[in-house]
Amino acid sequence: MTDLLQQLLNGLSQGSIYALIAVGYTMIYGIIQLINFAHGDVIMVGAYVALGCALMGLGFIPSLAVAMLTCAILGVIIERVAYRRVRPVSRLAALTSAIGVSLFLEYTMMYFLGADIRTFPAGFFPERTYSLWGITINNKDLLVLGTTLVLVIILQYIIYRTRTGKAMRAVSFDGQAAQLMGVNVNSTVAITFFIGSAMAAAAGLLYGIYFNTVQPLMGLMPGLKAFIAAVLGGIGSVPGAMLGGILLGMTESLVAGFGGSMYRDAVAFIILILVLLIRPTGLLGKGVQEKV
Amino acid sequence: MKKYLSTLIICLVLAVFFVVVQLGINNGFITGYWVTNLYLVGINVILASSLNLINGFTGEFSLGHAGFMAVGAYSGAIITANLGLPFPLAVIVGMLAAGLTGVLVGLPTLRLRGDYLAIATLGFGEIVRVVLMNIDYVGGASGLRDIPFVVNWPIIFFSVVLSLLLIRNFICSSHGRACLSVRENDLAAEMMGINITYYKVLAFVIGAALAGLAGVLYAHYYTVLQPRDFSFMLTFDVLVMVMVGGLGSLTGSVVGAVLITVASAFLQSIPELRMVIYALLLIISAVFRPQGLLGEKEVSLKILQKLGGVFNGAVGSKQTH
Hints:
The complex is a heterodimer.
Chain A: H1 2-32, H2 39-55, H3 60-83, H4 91-113, E1 129-132, E2 135-138, H5 139-161, H6 163-173, H7 175-180, H8 185-211, H9 220-233, H10 238-257, H11 264-278
Antiparallel strand pairs in A: 1-2
Helix pairs in contact in A: 1-5, 1-8, 1-9, 1-10, 2-3, 2-4, 2-8, 2-9, 3-8, 5-6, 5-8, 6-8, 9-10, 9-11, 10-11
Chain B: H1 2-27, H2 32-57, H3 65-82, H4 87-109, H5 114-133, H6 153-172, H7 174-184, H8 186-191, H9 196-222, H10 232-245, H11 250-266, H12 271-288, H13 301-320
Helix pairs in contact in B: 2-6, 2-9, 2-10, 2-11, 3-4, 3-5, 3-9, 4-9, 6-7, 6-9, 7-9, 10-11, 10-12
């Protein structure tokens, strides 16, 4: 029983990181119907920037802020350079361009910083553990959960209570109609990338602290799994992404904890195929009828 | 009559090319390093053209080619290395195994839109790698060794020619036309009574089986297989070839495969920079020429005729002056 609770707790922390990444995916997919393959690598860049700040002696909050701002700008640049021209032309070309950006970020990092695994300096986040009814709670878990919660609440506020958020919802509902109503679609898309990439940077920092690894290919797997989490929750829906992320994290943690650690990575993809077969719109998604 | 003539010319050119290269290899004009690259070009042409059948002609987006190649390579190698059966059987089994895996992966995922397929097939490739690493019968992470060295120039040459012929004839058949209509507009195609899932799966399976063939050739040339050879990077290389050559152009895939393979032979000493260059190439080609180098055009003898026509015309106009 304690084992089960312990695994669920681990899954909750890991799931919150997936959720933060998935939120960015789902926002970007919702607004331009493109899988932003580079999203996972924005996480990686965020982790490196935060690591750089940590090495210069900045604390957690300033490092987080610098990483989020840098990645937000990076996200806007990626959209402007690699996606904006291609999007209207062809989906396949846009997807290819996204894969190109992803590999470009990975291997540029590898070329300049090497492929070694780096870790955060020991004093950056002193670890403490607490014991509660036989479950070990690490303050890393609390940090991840707390940061995710705060960021998602801010995000919900932006999307549902501000004019920018209204524009984002309008564009994702119907881009052309929104444009006719005077919404600047291009700048709204740019803002979406800004916010989504900032979330990814936060996830990168949390991932770096939680697993204590930072390396050029670190974003690949969490990126893919976060996409699956977004599909599981219903793509385009922010609460869905949260729910999907946490469910996926818990499932993986349970599978790994009860003997199947080598199939940990396979589980996510099996979930994807099952969701696509049984309920392609995801748990909280809405079905859309396509027309010729 | 004219049609037979052009076929005859193509056959002649191919035959001359085949003989010249064979003589070059026999007499040592083509050294070992370039023989390796020549074979690699052949394998890559098969991979690129079969991926193009799925991504370019049918308009799906598969990222699982490395996985299908791995399935073909391993099952072919089991036939020759572990069971000691002859090579032709390995080719058949490798292609069948990869094609069957294509059915299993394609049936559930191809009913969905292209982007989901991309993620699902990417996941499939990763799963294949993880599973291969954990099967001791095929050597696990350290790999499968002592596969007989069978591949030579005639085998590569005829595999490439037959694969290209298969894909070309498929595209020109009514099945191929159906695939093209699925690419252009799947909903409209469905309205016209085309069973879109059937045609998507058909193209996907042919592509997967050919990737399996490439895998069998790969296994019997390098004689050692390791799961990490079949990572996402391999699919990515093939994707670059297809994109550079042109989505939906068979000759484009051949050109792309040759260009990229030769380029990577030169860039081998700087692997990270090579990937950066590829990535930039991919972005640039997607942004500025989304249809690729050749677009959907094919290089054929007609171009020669056109050139000839221009030339004759120019000569003619000069005479009138």
